[in-house]
Request: fold
Amino acid sequence: MNASPAPLGRVLVAAGVMLLLAGCAGVPASLAPLPAAAPDREQVLADPDAVKGETVVWGGVIAAVKNTSGGTRLEVVARDLDRQGRPQEADRSPGRFRAVSSGFLDPQIYAEGREVTVRGVIQGTEEGTIGDYDYTFVTLQADAVYLWPRRPPPSERHDRDPFYDPFYDPFYSPWGPHYGIDGRYHPHPWYW
Reply:
């Protein structure tokens, strides 16, 4: 006895849910696929020749940009990455690295303080300075540099939990006051 095929509606709903989930948690296409086991900065500093040529995906906040005739060099304050490959907001860093891109990256767009994730090949280490402090940088030849959109200011974020925040207002609207059909003030724009 043959099993009857699933109704078309169920198949379409299942396909839609799968596409939605895939789109929400994905890594940007220019960074994918993420390397399974890539060395970190400390491993590179310990033995640069052993990991030279390996592909890594590192990210952080831009500290300096320098354009040359051969391309652009970004100095990045490294941060741990989240599931999507975006640098996490944190007050700690495993160190700095330099990413060399063969193309031109406009320093007004790739400005200090912007978050980037770099997919590149480890070239080794180079000596440099941060102010007057001597520093050893890990250098990557960048295959892709992904510039993340700016995060909204903290006052505009809505990370409140209504069960644990006694001042949580589900009808709060950053767009201003509104009055409902009943004539009462409702700060939420879609409240009727």
Remarks:
- Confidence is low (pLDDT under 50) at residues 11-24.
- The chain has two domains: 28-147, 152-192.
- Residues 152-192 form one domain.
- Residues 75 and 98 are 5 Å apart (CA to CA).
